[in-house]
Amino acid sequence: MPENFFPAADADRAITQSLAEDVGAGDITSIATVPESTPGRAVFQAKDTGVLCGLPVLQRVYAHLDPRVQVELLVDEGSPVTPGTRVALVHGSARSLLTGERVALNFLQHLSGIATRTAIFVKLVEGTGARIVDTRKTVPGLRALAKYAVRVGGGHNHRFGLYDGVLIKDNHLQAAGGIHPAIQRARELAPHTLRVEVETETLVQVQEALAAGADVVLLDNMDLETCRQAVALCRGRALTEASGGINEQTLRAIAETGVDLISVGALTHSVAALDISLDWE
Q: What residue ranges define each of the domains in the chain, with the CATH number in brackets?
């Protein structure tokens, strides 16, 4: 992976906030029950099948909490894991290992869940040419890490926020007075480096978006036949993105309509955490 692939600054901010939230003035239980000089050694271990993501966060959690703790990675970021796979060893102050356990696991489980779900979706569209992309439906404060996990799982990122892409949705169209005036204003004000995308629900709207010069046409909740016709209309004129209620059962058929992109909010907004534990050795 490229060196700048991992969003270090965003991770540090999230870790600082998470440690403050969880530890506060101190880990009362560990301080009360474990002598200060007690050494410890523990292993992070997968208890489920999936794609591992978040090892750089694990390292940084303990670096923030106690730089003397040593973290030994046993697998690479993005590796497939199965129940029993040992992913990292940590050793140092027993108090520090225990205090950082929950924060480290929360990040590791959540990000691995995103990477795992993404990898499943990517596998399902293999050979169709469609790309799986994420959305802005992320846990507040964790967007950069969530989108990083999507990339680890083999997916691609949609816009990061409202600042780096023009996506004119149904409510924008209502407020702006329609597709043509909305795209026209976007062209006048947005930098030339930004693509202009517009959401459509019917073939009439697709044709209107193309006539107005949209770069990307979002096909929202269209049935397969309508989606196929919309792709044919857009071919060579604009990229197409399918979205809305897409799951593992419907994904392949949508990809086979020829769409360029398939955006899936479920990759990040309701993903199940991958089961990982910290076991004392």
A: 3-117+272-280 (3.90.1170.20), 123-269 (3.20.20.70)
